[in-house]
Amino acid sequence: MNPKVINQKSKYTQFIKSEAQRLGFISCGISKAGFLEEEAPRLEAWLKNNAHGQMGYMENHFDKRLNPTLLVDDSKSVISLLLNYYPQETQIADSYKISKYAYGQDYHFVIKEKLKELLFSIQENIGEVSGRAFVDSAPVLDKAWAAKSGLGWIGKNSNLLSKQVGSFFFIAELIVDLELEYDTAVTDHCGSCTKCIDACPTSAIIAPYVVDGSKCISYFTIELKDNIPQEMKGKFDDWAFGCDVCQDVCPWNRFSKPHNEPLFNPNPELLSLTKKDWEEITEETFRAVFKNSAVKRAKYDGLKRNIDFLK
C-alpha cells in the first residue's frame, strides 16, 4: 500500500482516539466493518432457545445486527467507545437497589451528544465523512465489536471485561465510511474463575459465556411487562431495577475507578432512600428523583410492581 495512504490512515486514527479521550471516553478501539461471522450461529442459537424472552426486538434486523455495512452505506470502520459510569458513592445498605448505570441521567442522551460531537469533529478536521452513532438501542452487537476492537474480552457473564477498568462502562459505536488503522482482539482473562456464575441469584448464567436473558433480574425488572413469575419470589436480592451482582463479584472490577461525568452523578435523594421510602414512593417523588434517568423505562407502575414483589 502507498506509504502516504498508510501515514494518512495512521494520522486519522490517532486524531479520532485523542478526540475520544478529550470527550471523556475511557477507551477507543477500531475494527474493519464487515460481517460478524463467529457471532451469527451464536445469535441464532440464543434466539432459538428463547433466551430473549419477551424482548421481541432482538429477533428484528437479524442481518443488520451482524453486518454494519447494511446499517451505514459504504461503511469501512466501526469505532467502539467505552464510557465509565462507576459511581463514587452507592446506595445506603437498607434500600431496594437499582443498577449503578441508572444512578444519573439516561446514558442514551449523554453518549449520543458526545458521539455527535466526535462525528462533527471528524468531519471538521478530516473532511467529508459519513457516519451514524449507536448507543445500544439499535441493532448493533456492541460487545462483539468492542471485543473485536481490542477493548476487552467477553466474560463468562457475557459482559465485556477489561483488565484496566473492569466492566462498569457503557459501550457505543460510530460507524463511518472512512478507512482507518484497525486494532486486534485481546485474549480472555477469565481463567477458571466462576464467581459470576456462582453468585447469580436466578441462575441466569446457564453456562460459561451464555446468559439466558429471560431469567435475568434485569429482564424481570425492566423488560417484562407481565407480572413477575411467583417462582422468582425471594430470589431478587432486593434489586428493584436491573442487577449488578455478576459485575460486583467480578475480580476485574476491583480496578473500577469512579467516573468523572457530572451528568452521571445521582440525585442525592436517591442514595439515601430507605426500603420504607421506596415502598411509599409517590408518582411525584418518582418523577423528581428519576427526572432524566433510565429508571423511567420501568415507569412508576413498573417500579411499584417490582417493589411490591420484593416486599
UniProtKB/TrEMBL annotation:
Keywords assigned: 4Fe-4S, Cobalamin, Cobalt, Cytoplasm, Iron, Iron-sulfur, Metal-binding, Oxidoreductase, Queuosine biosynthesis, tRNA processing
SUPFAM superfamilies on file: alpha-helical ferredoxin (SSF46548)
MF annotations from Gene Ontology: 4 iron, 4 sulfur cluster binding; cobalamin binding; epoxyqueuosine reductase activity; metal ion binding
Residues annotated to bind cob(II)alamin: 65, 136, 157, 160, 171, 218, 243-244
Cell compartments where the protein resides: Cytoplasm
EC number: 1.17.99.6
Name assigned to this protein: Epoxyqueuosine reductase
Gene: queG
